[in-house]
């Protein structure tokens, strides 16, 4: 198992073996380690010293369900700290079958130049592609389909990444070569685009495997694991209703972002809920699908395909966070409008959470009325045209709040909250405040825990557990949705690691791994200037009760600091 | 004299497939107007699949059942908790992930 380093300035490619100590970890652990090693903490995230790391986990490419997530990491131009965003699709498996744990992209092409990075068994080469400059992700995939769709995964940036917009994500193709799985958060698309990379094509049909791949012990562990996932009742909810099923729960908790986080319940929730989405797909048929796998061999299949009225595909997938941030947060109660907004964002290659939050702030400033679907669609279209309004919409919610003088700007470490109001789901608020990732639900979502989400009691500990658990999953390339079915059985994952890599796995490995990941991220952020004062939520969360349940935030800065200090004790 | 209590019950995600409806009103006698009483009534009404969804083999409510009584998530479920007339109970099948 190797790492592949590619200097984009010189075209030099270097393949080096993964250190023995790193064979059982990858993903977010690997992206963070390369960032710490290669990117000075003071470096400009869009400067010459930036890097983009694409990393899979140790179980990728081995037929284990939902184990092929791709981590995309480096220094974030949005938060100013270390960032990892991960996505489904086929990239993680493709890298693993080429015997690669990570691809490290350093240097940059001359300004204005665009290249494709093509990776196969023989190594990597840079292919100039001026004809692809400025293409949306769907047109790009269509253009590359003839030559590459069957045999390659595409990892790419849309126009937003090429323009260096801070809401730009990195897109990954799914099983059908649809470029709509986004490592969306933190602006990593801007970093990749700034380097002059339009896309990375990764050959799918490598034949390399970890040493225990053919062993009976691994095959047994894999069968037990996949069966546990497949037969879980909770998997069936995800398969039929996807993450959209969360909407009604969060609304009932009074924590659903509505009209720029000014309310916690949405009067139109029943028109955009998971149940409404299910019914729409059922009624229209056509290209629609309740259940869809973004990774080959995934038995959860939580993705969906949303059809238009004529049965043609509008978008795949449509998920909870987009329904929240581009639905209730904008006062929109029409699934077709939200689906079109999502499709357009996927084409531009921007994060629907960051853009949705920014549009909410723009609406509060009076640039467009809440509930005005065509108005929001016009602004999103302007992102692609590079107008002032478009650039404002896609350069981060924090910036828009400052430009427009809006105090209710829902960000932590300058990254937008991901569709959970901290006053209604307090543990997730703790995560937004304290995670090195900023306002990112994937860093430690607590909403599914059977606790009183309105009480502060136990929320700091709950967030800590979730942050550590998520970090370990991210470092293993595992989909968070596995937690539905096997979250309480870490021994199943340990058995997979042991038998596939024929290695000893120490007791408490996953917990230690998660803590190690976060500890290193905090250290990097501190060196980058993100001190304890950034482990906070914006003032409006403290000062405004959230209607209609009048929920308040009552977790003190000292309690938040205790979580961070517990993970990364200060040097004495 | 105690009077019957009417509770509006709403079903979400897989639960509505088990019951075949998304909402209904259930009127309970005063002696059965508790959470346990209502869940028992619903299990009998909607058949064995819904019964198995709600109740474990040892007679406790399954951990994947999520309930809200009006605005309040029922975290520490007390089967003897009484309803008031006009209360709303929401029933979800839990997931996790996100």
Q: What would you say about this model in short?
A:
The complex is a heterodimer of chains A (572) and B (98). Chain A is 40% helix and 14% strand. Chain A is of the alpha+beta class.
| Structural class by helix and strand composition of chain A | alpha+beta
Could you tell me the radius of gyration of chain B in angstroms? 13 Å
Helix content of chain A: 25-40%
Helical content class of chain B: 25-40%
The chain-level mean pLDDT of chain A equals 96
Distance between the termini of chain B: 49 Å
Question: Major sheet of chain B: size, sense and barrel closure?
Answer: 5 strands, mixed
Which spans of chain A have pLDDT < 50 for at least 5 consecutive residues? Answer: none
Number of helices of chain B: 3
Tell me what portion of residues of chain A adopts beta-strand conformation: 5-15%
User: Strands of the biggest beta sheet of chain B: in what spatial order?
Assistant: 2-1-5-3-4
How is the quaternary structure best described?
A: heterodimer
Can you give a write-up of this model?
The complex is a heterodimer of chains A (572) and B (98). Chain A has 23 helices and 17 strands. Chain A has helices at residues 27-38, 91-97, 137-148, 159-162, 188-194, 216-230, 233-241, 246-253, 269-272, 274-284, 320-325, 335-348, 352-364, 373-385, 388-393, 397-404, 426-434, 459-475, 482-486, 490-501, 509-527, 539-543, 557-567, and strands at 2-7, 13-17, 52-55, 70-75, 82-87, 100-106, 115-120, 123-128, 152-156, 170-172, 181-183, 197-203, 289-292, 303-307, 313-315, 411-412, 415-416. In chain A, the strands form 4 sheets. Chain A has a 6-stranded mixed β-sheet with strand order 2-1-6-3-4-5. A 6-stranded mixed β-sheet of chain A has the order 8-7-12-9-10-11. In chain A, 62% of the residues are buried. With 98 residues, chain B is α+β, with helices and mostly antiparallel strands. Chain B has helices at 13-19, 35-46, 48-54, and strands at residues 5-11, 23-28, 65-69, 72-73, 88-93. A 5-stranded mixed β-sheet of chain B has the order 2-1-5-3-4. In chain B, a hairpin with a 2-residue loop joins strand 3 (65-69) and strand 4. The longest helix of chain B has 12 residues, at 35-46. Chain A binds chain B through residues 233-234, 236-238, 240-241, 243, 245-246, 248-249, 252-254, 274-275, 302, 320, 441-442, 445, 447-448, 450-453, 479-484, 487, 549, and chain B through 12-14, 16-17, 22, 63-64, 66, 68, 71, 73, 75, 90, 92-98.
């Amino acid at each position: 198992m190797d790492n592949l380093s590619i200097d984009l300035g010189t075209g030099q490619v270097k393949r080096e073996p993964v250190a023995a100590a790193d064979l059982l970890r990858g993903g977010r652990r690997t992206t963070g380690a390369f960032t710490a090693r290669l990117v000075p903490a003071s470096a400009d995230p869009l400067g010459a010293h930036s890097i983009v790391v694409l990393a899979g986990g140790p179980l990728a490419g081995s037929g284990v369900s939902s184990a092929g997530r791709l981590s995309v990491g480096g220094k974030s131009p949005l938060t100013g700290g270390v960032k990892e965003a991960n996505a489904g699709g086929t990239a993680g498996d493709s890298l693993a079958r080429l015997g690669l744990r990570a691809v490290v992209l350093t240097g940059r092409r001359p300004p204005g130049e665009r290249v494709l990075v093509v990776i196969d068994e023989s190594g990597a080469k840079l292919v100039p592609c001026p004809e692809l400059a400025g293409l949306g992700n769907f047109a790009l995939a269509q253009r590359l389909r003839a030559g590459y769709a069957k045999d390659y995964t595409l990892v790419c940036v849309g126009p937003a990444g090429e323009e260096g917009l801070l809401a730009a994500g990195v897109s990954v193709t799914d099983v059908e070569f649809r470029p709509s799985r986004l490592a969306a958060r933190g602006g990593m698309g801007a970093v990749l685009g700034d380097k002059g990379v339009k896309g990375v094509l990764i050959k799918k049909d490598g034949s390399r495997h970890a040493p225990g791949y053919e062993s009976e012990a691994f095959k047994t562990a894999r069968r037990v694991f996949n069966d546990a996932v497949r037969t879980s009742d909770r998997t069936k909810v995800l398969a039929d209703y996807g993450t959209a099923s969360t909407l009604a729960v969060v609304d009932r908790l009074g924590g659903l972002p509505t009209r720029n986080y000014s309310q916690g319940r949405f009067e139109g929730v029943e028109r955009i809920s998971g149940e409404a989405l299910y019914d729409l797909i059922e009624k229209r048929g056509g290209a629609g699908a309740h259940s869809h796998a973004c990774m080959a061999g995934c038995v959860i299949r939580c993705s969906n395909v949303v059809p238009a009225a004529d049965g043609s595909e509008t978008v795949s997938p449509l998920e909870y966070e987009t329904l929240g941030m581009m639905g209730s947060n904008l006062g929109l109660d029409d699934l077709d409008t939200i689906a079109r907004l999502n499709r357009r964002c996927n084409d531009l290659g921007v994060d629907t959470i960051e853009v949705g939050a920014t549009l909410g702030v723009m609406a509060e400033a009076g640039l467009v009325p809440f509930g005005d679907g065509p108005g929001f669609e016009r602004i999103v279209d302007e992102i692609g045209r590079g107008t002032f309004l478009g650039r404002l919409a896609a350069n981060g919610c924090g910036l828009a709040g400052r430009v427009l003088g809006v105090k209710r700007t829902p960000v932590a470490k300058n990254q937008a909250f991901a569709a959970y109001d901290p006053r209604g789901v307090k543990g997730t608020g703790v995560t937004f405040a304290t995670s090195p990732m900023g306002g990112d639900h994937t860093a430690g979502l607590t909403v599914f825990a059977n606790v009183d989400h309105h009480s502060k009691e136990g929320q700091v500990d709950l967030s800590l557990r979730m942050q550590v658990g998520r970090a370990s999953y991210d470092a293993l390339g595992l989909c968070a949705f596995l937690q539905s079915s096997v979250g309480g059985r870490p021994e199943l994952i340990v058995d997979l690691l042991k038998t596939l890599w024929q290695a000893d796995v120490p007791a408490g490995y996953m917990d230690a791994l998660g803590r190690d990941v976060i500890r290193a991220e905090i250290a990097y952020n501190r060196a980058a200037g993100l001190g304890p004062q950034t482990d906070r939520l914006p003032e409006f969360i403290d000062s405004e009760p959230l209607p209609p349940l009048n929920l308040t935030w009552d977790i003190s800065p000292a309690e938040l600091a205790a979580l961070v200090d517990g993970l990364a004790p200060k040097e004495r | 004299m105690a009077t019957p209590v009417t509770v509006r019950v709403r079903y979400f995600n897989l639960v509505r497939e088990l019951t075949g409806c998304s909402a209904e009103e259930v009127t309970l006698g005063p002696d059965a107007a508790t959470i346990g009483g209502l869940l028992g009534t619903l299990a009998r009404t909607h058949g064995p699949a819904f019964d198995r969804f709600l109740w474990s083999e040892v007679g406790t409510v399954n951990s994947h059942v999520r309930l809200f009584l009006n605005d309040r998530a029922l975290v520490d479920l007390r089967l003897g908790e009484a309803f008031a007339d006009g209360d709303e109970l929401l029933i979800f099948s839990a997931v996790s992930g996100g």
